[in-house]
Amino acid sequence: MKKCKITVLKTTLDKELAEEYGAEGLTACPMMKEGQVFYADYAKPEGFCDEAWKAIYQYVFALSHGAGNDVFYYGDWIRKPGVAICSCNDGLRPVIFKIEATEEESQIDYVPMR
């Protein structure tokens, strides 16, 4: 298993929807910042938003296990193998992530219980 590099590409705010449904003073996500980089494999990186992780972890898992164009790209999504562009599931202020497979081997940092 390899590690994946997760880069925050963009934090957004849908002003029209936020105006209608959002709390007063709602802004783009305060947790994630454009340009932040995280590394992950099977576990959520420290400091990463729990909800965002739930939305993207399946892509991290697939890429860390060697998924390529034949697994979830179908030739009509991303042109570069080993990359996925995903977002969190916040409908008012989604954060856009780039997930890239790396060559860095993952290390299990716990002792399995038997």
UniProtKB/TrEMBL annotation:
It comes from the Bacteria. InterPro entries: CHP04076 (IPR023811). This is TIGR04076 family protein. It comes from Candidatus Blautia stercoripullorum. The lineage of its organism: Bacteria, Bacillati, Bacillota, Clostridia, Lachnospirales.
